[in-house]
Write a structure and sequence with these properties.
about 210 residues; Rossmann fold; seven-stranded mixed sheet; 7 strands
Length: about 210
């Protein structure tokens, strides 16, 4: 028997349900992971993202963690604080947009060669809708890379994240890929790098048939 809708909704409830635009109205130029974990994110991007492509940094901030010497054609940041993104020297374009208020990503279909979401997936209240939108804006066979740790703003993380452990987080993100559809070769990697605990789940948009 399926769980009641109210029980499902509580999984995505947060301690602070005020609009995210209020919480992020002041710049918070902090990183949730240390240098070793940041280096591991960059190494994974180097491994999986195509060289010279157009990339979307989803839920972007003042750092994108792309590795030194990696030269994409275009990097677009989509985030909540314009001042933070203005300090991100790796972004070519910054767009202020709240995916929790409106999961529709404001770009055309099949335009990005890769999408990254670093240490932010725990804040999504409509993750399946957002993953569907990411799939829409990606080119066929392009990757979506989700990295995360056990660090967060706890008042803005969803309950399903706060009250579960590292392996459950990995399975939760796998579930987002599975439920949103349109993905192939979904993989994960645990305990990346030598610093803070870091995990990654990624998938590739299915090719056109």
């Amino acid at each position: 028997m399926a769980a009641p809708q109210g029980s499902f909704d509580r999984l995505f409830a947060r301690m602070d349900e005020s609009p995210d635009a209020f919480f992020y109205s002041l710049p918070r130029k902090v990183v949730h992971i240390d240098e070793g974990a940041i280096a591991a994110v960059g190494a994974l991007y180097q491994e999986l993202l195509p060289a010279g492509g157009a990339l979307l940094d989803l839920m972007s901030s003042w750092r994108s963690h792309l590795p030194a010497g990696f030269n994409p054609r275009l990097v677009v940041g989509l985030g909540l604080n314009g001042e933070e993104m203005a300090d991100n020297h790796q972004l070519d374009v910054a767009v202020v947009h709240d995916v929790n208020r409106n999961p529709n990503i404001p770009f055309q279909d099949d335009v990005f060669d890769g999408v990254m979401c670093a240490v932010s997936v725990q804040y999504l209240v409509k993750p399946v809708a957002v993953f569907q939108q990411v799939n829409r804006v990606l080119k066929p066979e392009a990757p979506f890379i989700v990295t995360f740790s056990n660090r967060c703003f706890p008042n803005k993380a969803i309950a399903a994240w706060l009250y579960s452990g590292d392996q459950e987080h990995v399975q939760l993100v796998h579930g987002y890929f599975q439920s949103s559809g349109g993905w192939s070769r979904v993989s994960d990697r645990a305990a990346l790098g030598t610093g803070d605990p870091l995990f990654a789940v990624w998938g590739f948009k299915q090719a056109f048939v």
